[in-house]
């Protein structure tokens, strides 16, 4: 069978969607089947991975100037020409073609639920119509959590039996780093004190300002001994104050050591369809303090401490209590490390491939 895959998320600065797809392709390369996988990308797509250099994969780089045209016309023509029999998209878009079943992925719909995104009425009307149409045309919709499945049912009226929950996986590189690796990362990012870590971006729902406010409210002795590292937050002329480091983009090769060296990982997000950074931190034996919102309690379970993401004072008190309780921090390290083992790349990949197999057999 020839399976087409939209591979545009494989870029040099990958998101969680890109990493998920990469894990799937790496699993396929190690466990080849009778299928051939056509990978469709554009000029920004990075398919230069050694495990993709075999007959299982066919690389198709198609220049993309206008995304709408590429999505709705160009990709369709190349899919038909390649003889694709089944199409998999790691997000909600797919070239819906008669007699070619499509499986799509929707990790979250925060832009329909969370302010200020939900106030973009005209854009959201388009997205809602588009999402409903795509879900109706797709054979199956994959999402990463029961929380997200509930959202899809409630907001888009998708039948429950059309949605399959497949938890995401952690890349195998996320393991406790050596002391040498941690020291190298500390030196690279000028971290000369113990530090708290947050991995995210400056989008409003990531709620970074609440974390900054909470950190500034900590007692002077803690602020003197600790730095707050904001990984993924672009360096700018904004001065957040003493002890707050905006580290900018962090490469995948540096992230495990950055997690491993942190005293505490803090995740203040208002909405996550899954919350992969929480599990990455756990896999590196970093204790986790996370928001109690959305899917996060489902993903982290009893292996994390929680706070209400609407109250900076509550977060401040939680950080202070944890830093003053080494025994609890050690228990969180061990619980988190065991929790992360449940989210394996092999299991996720097998589950996705089973969905693709069932789509063709239908």
Structure description:
The chain is an alpha/beta fold. It folds into 2 domains: 2-169 and 344-361, Rossmann fold (3-Layer(aba) Sandwich), CATH 3.40.50; 179-340, Rossmann fold. 42% of the residues lie in helices and 16% in strands. It has helices at 16-30, 67-81, 110-113, 121-137, 146-156, 179-188, 208-216, 220-225, 255-261, 276-283, 296-300, 312-323, 326-340, 345-361, and strands at 2-6, 36-41, 57-61, 86-89, 102-105, 140-143, 163-165, 194-199, 226-231, 244-248, 264-267, 288-291, 305-307. It has a 7-stranded parallel sheet with strand order 3-2-1-4-5-6-7, sandwiched between helices. The protein has a 6-stranded parallel sheet with strand order 10-9-8-11-12-13, with helices on both faces. The longest helix has 17 residues, at 121-137. It is globular.
């Amino acid at each position: 069978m020839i399976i087409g895959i939209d591979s545009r998320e494989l870029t040099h600065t990958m998101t969680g969607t890109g990493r998920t797809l990469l894990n799937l392709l790496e699993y396929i390369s190690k466990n080849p089947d009778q299928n051939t996988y056509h990978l469709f990308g554009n000029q920004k797509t990075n398919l230069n991975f050694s495990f993709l250099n075999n007959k299982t994969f066919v690389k198709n780089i198609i220049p993309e100037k206008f995304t709408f045209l590429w999505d709705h016309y160009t990709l369709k023509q190349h899919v038909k020409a390649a003889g694709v029999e089944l199409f998999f998209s790691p997000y909600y878009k797919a070239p819906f073609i008669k007699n070619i079943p499509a499986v799509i992925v929707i990790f979250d719909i925060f832009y329909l639920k969370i302010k200020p995104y939900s106030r973009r009425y005209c854009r959201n009307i388009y997205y809602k119509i588009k999402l409903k149409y795509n879900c109706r045309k797709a054979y199956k919709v994959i999402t990463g959590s029961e929380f997200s499945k509930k959202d899809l049912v409630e907001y888009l009226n998708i039948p429950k039996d059309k949605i399959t929950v497949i938890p995401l996986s952690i890349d195998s590189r996320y393991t406790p780093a050596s002391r040498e690796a941690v020291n190298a990362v500390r030196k690279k990012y000028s971290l000369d004190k113990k530090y708290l870590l947050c991995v995210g971006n400056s989008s409003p729902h990531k709620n970074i300002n609440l974390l900054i406010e909470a950190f500034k409210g900590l007692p002077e002795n803690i602020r003197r001994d600790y730095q707050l590292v904001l990984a993924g937050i672009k360096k700018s002329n904004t001065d957040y104050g003493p002890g707050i480091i905006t580290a900018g983009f962090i490469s995948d090769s540096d992230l495990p050591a950055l997690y491993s060296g942190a005293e505490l990982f803090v995740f203040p997000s208002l909405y996550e369809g899954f919350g992969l950074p929480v599990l990455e931190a756990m896999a590196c034996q970093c204790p986790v303090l996370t928001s109690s919102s959305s899917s996060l309690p489902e993903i982290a379970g009893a292996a994390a401490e929680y706070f209400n993401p609407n109250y900076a004072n509550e977060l401040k008190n939680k950080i202070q209590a944890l830093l003053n309780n080494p025994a609890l921090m050690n228990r969180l390290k061990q619980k988190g490390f065991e929790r992360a083992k449940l989210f394996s790349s092999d299991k996720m990949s097998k589950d996705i491939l089973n969905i693709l197999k069932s789509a063709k057999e239908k």
